[in-house]
């Protein structure tokens, strides 16, 4: 069992999710993002791919230098790099790295003395990210598949955790944040972009697996 937090209109509602439901939610997320790993085109109600990166004001030189497959599956909802500078030599974790565009950006910012790690729930995304980064000749990156909110790194391992459109998908946000703060070094930074509900979802959507994975 785990706790599920849904916030809408400033009200926090806490429900308990059975392990059966948790499994269903994770499977729905994996199914959706296995498809997105092929291409994000037409699968979201906001700009994705290269158009999304341009709309979110990613550095234009970095966008130009990215191979098309790094951008095809990009479905970030914001720009974590706009929230603070990432320095040469830092160690960065991307939680829910998808096909690797934010890993590519971070690897450019930390340089060859830095390191970038990505984790993702969806096998196909992990494979896509590994291929994309190998194709871009990026060697300071490692990517791991995860099966839960547990982050497979030791305490105090990272200077910065970035995340883009992922924490809203988690049915166990408390665990997610605890894990992020566990792996951050003292004084480390969390720079994330995400989706929040402003109004309660209609009843037919609030229990829908599809709505969880949007
Ligand atoms: C909206 S996509 C964003 C991907 C990437 N950050 C980007 O900007 O293109 C969400 C990603 O989070 C992954 N994901 C969802 N829940 C996760 C979790 N609990 N831990 C790790 N990855 C997760 C999904 O598999 C998917 O690749």
Q: Let me know the average pLDDT.
A: 91
Would you report the number of β strands? 7
Kindly report the spatial arrangement of strands forming the biggest sheet.
Answer: 5-4-3-6-7
Largest sheet: 5 strands, parallel
DSSP summary: helix tally:
9
| Portion in helices | 25-40%
Can you describe this structure in just a few lines?
By secondary structure, the chain is α/β, with parallel strands linked by helices.
How would you characterize this protein structure?
With 214 residues, the chain is of the alpha/beta class. It has helices at 19-36, 49-55, 60-65, 68-72, 101-110, 123-135, 173-183, 203-206, 209-212; strands spanning 2-8, 11-17, 91-95, 115-120, 141-145, 158-164, 184-193. It is 36% helix and 22% strand. The strands form two sheets. The chain has a five-stranded parallel β-sheet. It has a two-stranded antiparallel sheet with strand order 1-2. A hairpin with a 2-residue loop joins strand 1 (2-8) and strand 2 (11-17). The site of S-adenosylmethionine has 23 residues, from helix 1, helix 5 and strand 4.
Write the layout of secondary structure elements.
Elements: E1 2-8, E2 11-17, H1 19-36, H2 49-55, H3 60-65, H4 68-72, E3 91-95, H5 101-110, E4 115-120, H6 123-135, E5 141-145, E6 158-164, H7 173-183, E7 184-193, H8 203-206, H9 209-212
Features:
single chain; 214 residues; alpha/beta; five-stranded parallel sheet; two-stranded antiparallel sheet; 9 helices; 7 strands; 36% helix; globular; disordered N terminus; binds S-adenosylmethionine
